[in-house]
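step=predict obj=Response regulator transcription factor n=222
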Amino acid sequence: MDDLDRRIRVAVVDDDTVIREGLPHLLPDLHVTAAVSSVEELLAAPPEADVILLDLVLTGTGRTGVRQGAAAVEAVARAGFRTLIYTNERRREVLVGCVAAGAHGVVHKAEPLATLASAVAEVAAGRVVITQALVGLAELAERRGGLASLTPRQREILSARARGETFRSIAERLFISKKTAEEHMAVVTAKFADFLRDHSPADLEWELGLGPGDLLDRRPMS
């Protein structure tokens, strides 16, 4: 087996040209088998890869209609790949949601390249990696945090309230009573009482990554 065959095979999914073209030169001990700007491109021609290095935000160039965040992680996991998130994102609830969607690790882009290379090796070996730059994420992931305790209906009503929709309007649209809508929001408020003491529902929605087009938004792509 030659040196090329012994290297870990990595496919890079990132909308940043510098990342796609630079990593093969910066990490020569890895064998970059593909470097694409979207999950759609990756899945259209699946590469030979031990690890997919995946950015979470893939619409930075203004593109629409591409999967990102948890939806991208899920798609890659369903295709049978191990995924290592490589991101600038620091919202812990968002990262936990993406780990829950099937990612095997998280590395922040501010970390040294040696940390990234080590994390790739760990994920390739079947282990889960969360690096020191994201202290506390492992503990939050273990107990699944507040995000996992929100039901789909609670998320829906939080999103509506974040847009300024009245409880009466929410109730009519969802075919529930106004009292039921208020009760769902009361549960959300109780779960995030400390945060909502100084922040709005829109702030909470953003912190949880649930806003339109955000990383845990499950709305259909346009």
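step=describe
The first strand starts at residue 8 and ends at 13.
step=end
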